[in-house]
Design brief:
InterPro entries: Reg_factor_effector_dom_sf, SOUL_heme-bd. With about 190 residues, the chain is an alpha+beta fold. It is about 15% helix and about 30% strand. A 9-stranded antiparallel sheet has the order 1-2-7-9-8-4-5-3-6, with helices on one face. A hairpin with a 2-residue loop joins strand 1 (about 15-20) and strand 2. The protein is globular.
Length: about 190
């Protein structure tokens, strides 16, 4: 745990190709991947937007016997990806995702979860505009990064094709100045 407080990322991260770099952001292309995800109303977890983390951590076996049908321990990867949904009159939901290790090429290769809230899905190839920042990924900081990145992408002629996702690479006990976070906006 010692190096983890200083932000050392010692787990598998998704491979990607940098298509464009500079102007404070990158355009990245990601190959297909398999993800485990859970969508929830944060009120289910006393208002904690990160409440789904424990559900996914139990699926891969972070805290003991994995809660999947094999049961097979699955290596932790980074980042943990979150996306907010809903709004208006409907309940605000959060979708949290763990990208599974590269060894899982198709959804059916991954062990089936025993918790029905966990969904295994294939993510096709993706292209994102990405800005990296350190510190705590507080709502205000994330909102500011999304606004600036959206503006920069539009200025540079990129077509935004969906809502942003937040990628966090470090455990919660990492000292804030050493945390690595990314705002990722899908583009054509």
């Amino acid at each position: 745990m010692g190096l983890m407080v200083f932000g050392k990322i010692a787990v598998e991260t998704p491979k990607h190709t940098v298509v464009k770099s500079g102007d404070g952001y990158e355009i990245r292309e990601y190959p297909p991947a398999v993800a485990a995800e859970v969508t929830y109303d944060p009120s289910e977890f006393k208002g904690d937007k990160d409440g789904g983390f424990m559900v996914l951590a139990k699926y891969i076996g972070v805290f003991g016997k994995p809660e999947n049908q094999k049961p097979e321990k699955i290596a932790m990867t980074a980042p943990v990806v979150t996306k907010e949904g809903g709004g208006g009159d409907e309940k605000k939901t959060v979708t949290m995702q763990f990208l599974l290790p590269e060894v899982y090429k198709k959804a059916e290769d991954a062990p089936l979860p025993t918790d029905e809230r966990v969904v295994i899905k294939e993510e096709g190839g993706r292209k994102y505009g990405v800005v990296t920042f350190s510190g705590t990924a507080a709502e205000g900081a994330v909102s500011e990064k999304v606004k600036k990145l959206s503006s920069d992408l539009e200025r540079d002629g990129f077509k935004i094709t969906g809502d942003y996702v937040l990628a966090r690479y470090n455990p919660p006990w990492t000292l804030p100045p050493f945390k690595t976070n990314e705002v990722m906006i899908p583009v054509e």
